[in-house]
Amino acid sequence: MAEQQVQPLHNEKHANTKIQNGINVEFLKTQHLVPVVAHEFARVANEFPMSFVKNNETGQFQAVAMFGLEPGENLFVQDGKWTAAFAPMATTRYPLGLVKHPEEDQYGIVIDEASPLVGDAEGNALFENGEETDYLKRRKEALVSFIEFSHVTEAFTKYLADKELLVAQTLTVDIKGEKKDINGIYLIDEKKLNELSDEAFLELRKRGYLAPIYSFLTSTHQVARLARLKAQQA
Asked: Name one Pfam family in it (predicted).
């Protein structure tokens, strides 16, 4: 795995830099959990199971898509290719990123120069005559959206946690007749959800939280898909 070389993006330094379409499979192949934002839950649920993981230091929860059943395993990377029909926003941002300037409320754009998707030969140009290309403008908009979506998702997740709607769960999967337990994940407690008062349920609807909640609940059926993939690959 090549070291990252993250540098601020600059119209002179990166005048001839291009980015190829695609995702960084090299990095992804060892990721079994990837952060997802509430705005994409419906699409994620069609492909991957989702869960929440807890940061034991901060007590904060984060929504993730599960690409594998154990650390270091991504069942959607086969022969160096991404096989799923969809990739979450967290994976498609790369090799660009946003960093916040400490003094001001401004973001700067950075690029990983070591990425296999970055070069001068082929791909989408970032600058033309010193000006940002439409491609770069679109990529920037997507990066800013991702930050905004992440804040909304944090608020959504915190609300669920505060209302005690997240529950630690062990998922049991069947791989070629062998039972395997997956621990350390949290799911939305469907029983508690159904027991909410009308007022509390209405509050979820007003906040726009019902759609991501139901997408999340639907997604857990995809765990069986991971088990099938693992059995095939074994």
From this structure: SapC
